[in-house]
């Protein structure tokens, strides 16, 4: 039987693979669909995939006394999506995914003051080492993309708040309820501006949107369960794994170069994850 920490890490790896896949789809659709359409259909199709859970659990799934946390998570999540999709449409996939990798550095800070979770020195060292690996794997020319990266930093900060909120509410809210409310509220909120930014869509874009909804539902369930199993400050750095998936997708679909520096960064990132997880198992 795997420990909760290992289960949380594996689930977070699955979630990050899904999120990198969403990033690839966003990049694919950005030349045809508006960002408003992308955000809405990402949430709409994710909601459709969550409806069977409502049927299975009945309306008892919706019973909650912490609706304000669900609404707060939806608001931070949808603003983060707009920022993130804006960045992805303007940068190579690997560089675009880099901005979200800033969120693990913000999670322990928020968790320290909000959840009173005190990360160990080795955890902090692992986080720092993971950051070094990210910078080694995906060097970015910050001078030409300052404004875009500022938007990306805002997105990363909001993602960190969202992940910490999941941890905070998971003591009373099951993963399915958290994800269902997130899908419902973000679908409703993101529908509001759609009529003002509508553009004609072809068949391949519609199929891409369906795929994005599937990946979003799986990723949200996996991430929510991961942060319910383990402290955000201990597994949040596994978010670095998305750099691997983003690099692979970028190479396969857009021939973005994969360098020796990229492989070196990947090794550093995984070593950082190994030492952080191992010290919790000793």
The biggest beta sheet, please? none
Any idea what the radius of gyration is?
18 Å
**Total beta strands:** 0
Bin the strand percentage.
under 5%
Report mean pLDDT, rounded to a whole number. 82
**Share in helix:** over 70%
The backbone outline, from C-alpha atoms, is: globular
Count every helix, treating DSSP H or I runs of 4 or more residues as helices.
12
Q: How would you sum up this structure, described in words?
A:
Helices cover 76% and strands 0% of the residues. By secondary structure, it is mostly helical. It is globular.
What is the strand and helix layout of this fold?
Blueprint: H1 4-29, H2 35-57, H3 67-88, H4 93-100, H5 103-114, H6 121-137, H7 146-169, H8 175-191, H9 203-229, H10 232-235, H11 242-254, H12 260-281
Helix pairs in contact: 1-9, 1-11, 2-3, 2-8, 2-9, 3-7, 3-8, 4-11, 5-7, 6-12, 7-9, 8-9
Quick tags:
mainly alpha, single chain
Brief summary of the model shown:
This protein has 282 residues and is mostly helical. It is built from 12 helices and no strands.
